[in-house]
Amino acid sequence: MQLLHRRGMAALGLFLLSAPLLPRFALAQAPGGQPPAVGVAPVTRSAVTETNEFIGRIDAMQRVDLMPRLTAFLEKREFEEGAEVKQGDLLFRLERGPFEAQLQIARASVAEADAQLQNANITLARAQALLNTVAGQRSNVDTALAAQRSAQAQLLSSQASVRQAQINLDYTEIRAPITGRIGRASVTEGNVVTPSSGALASIVSQDPMYVSFTVPMRTLTDVRARYAERGGLNAVKLRVRLPGGRVYGQTGTLNFVDIDVGRDTDSVLLRGTIPNPPTQGGYRELTANQIVNVVVEAIEPIQALTITRAAVLSDARGDFVYVIGAENKAERRTVRMGRNSTPERAVIEDGLKEGEQVVVDGLQRVRPGQPVNPAPANQPGGNGPAGGNPGGGNQGARPNQGG
After folding, report:
1. If residue 215 lies in a helix (H) or strand (E), which one and from where to where?
2. What are 220-230's pLDDT values in tens digits?
3. pLDDT tens digits, 245-272
4. How far, CA to CA in Å, does 354 sit from each of 26, 305, 311?
5. Checking DSSP bridges between strand 267-274 and strand 209-216, what pairing results, if any?
6. Residue in 40, 20, 27, 92 with CA at minimum distance from that of residue 307
7. Cβ atoms of residues 192 and 72 within 8 Å
8. How far is it, in rounded angstroms, from Cα 381 to Cα 38?
9. Which of 95, 219, 310, 380 is such that its CA lies 20 to 30 A from the CA of 159?
10. Which stretch of DSSP H or E encloses residue 255?
């Protein structure tokens, strides 16, 4: 009895030791010893749009701080804070009374100076007429001429005072110098404002807007070299990814590269312009000083090798795919994906050739060097994607599959 018991325990131990190997063997072999069914797709050459993405900022093309030019009481604010205003719109009204009085005084001075000039002209003409008579004296003519010229200068000074008084009176109405959106007023009605009291409000232009972003000099050099034969930086357009991930509907153009490189960052500032039209709701999507992601996108796509992203697996040795080789055997192939790969499509820079078949579905059944039963992954009712593959697709890293 003890001998039978020991043999039974030994058999049980061997069964337990071999148990972890059963699922792998079962996955590697289809029922009846047939090769496992997998779905495959060809490596194709398709149009790929090259992109680079950077963190940037939206800036207004024009920004104006509304400064008072006089010392006066603020009588009325004529705008709604945060609204859009047009060039020439009345925004603030200062008290006009004192400046209207100054203008009247200046006009009176002009009238007085004009009267004095007319009298000086008459005196000069009389002195010149008497010069050829016994009563005439040259000194009288010289005195009259000096008085006439002094009266002319006084008239010009008075006329200048009128212009200055008119300018000051016009300054009591502060109007919008540009079209744009105005911010909040910093001073309320009834307060005294002076030229040193600061900006009453600010206006920023709305359409178009600047989009500025910083690029490492190494990246800029690479982009220039890549697009050198296609027009340089003129061969790219700008897109803006808004907070939340949505891509802004308008595209911009790159039109400025700064002349200096940052000493601490070895980066350079680039700037473009992008439209910012009002939406159906009446607001604009881009706001000055807004942080966005700037996508530098090629105007013309290039041809590149692409495969379904689900075919790409990863482990400690990097990215790889399974390629159908001779006798339908699966071969592990290390690949290098391009930066323009997406969650749906992988751009392959190295490791594959056009027309090769890669495994897309049934990846968990594939072992390097073992035969498989391939079928087109998009074939209706095919054995590839459907043939008993409840967990097909990219199952993540599987380091123990490397051959």
Report:
1. strand 209-216
2. 888 788 777 77
3. 889 999 998 889 898 898 888 899 999 9
4. 33, 7, 15
5. antiparallel
6. 40
7. yes
8. 12
9. 95
10. strand 252-261
**Token pair 């080789």: residue:** 325
How far is residue 7 CA from its own chain's centroid?
Answer: 76
CA distances from 79 to 62, 76, 169, 231, 373 (A): 19, 9, 20, 47, 75
Total Cβ atoms within 10 A of residue 22: 10
Q: What is the pTM of this model?
A: 0.65
DSSP string, 309-354: GGG-EEETTEEEEEEE-GGGBEEEEE-EE-TT--SSEEEEEES--T
Phi, psi of 151, deg, nearest 5: -65, -35
CB 38 within 8 A of CB 374: yes
HSE-CB of 281 using CA atoms within 13 angstroms? 3
Q: Specify the pairing of strand 90-94 against strand 173-175.
A: antiparallel
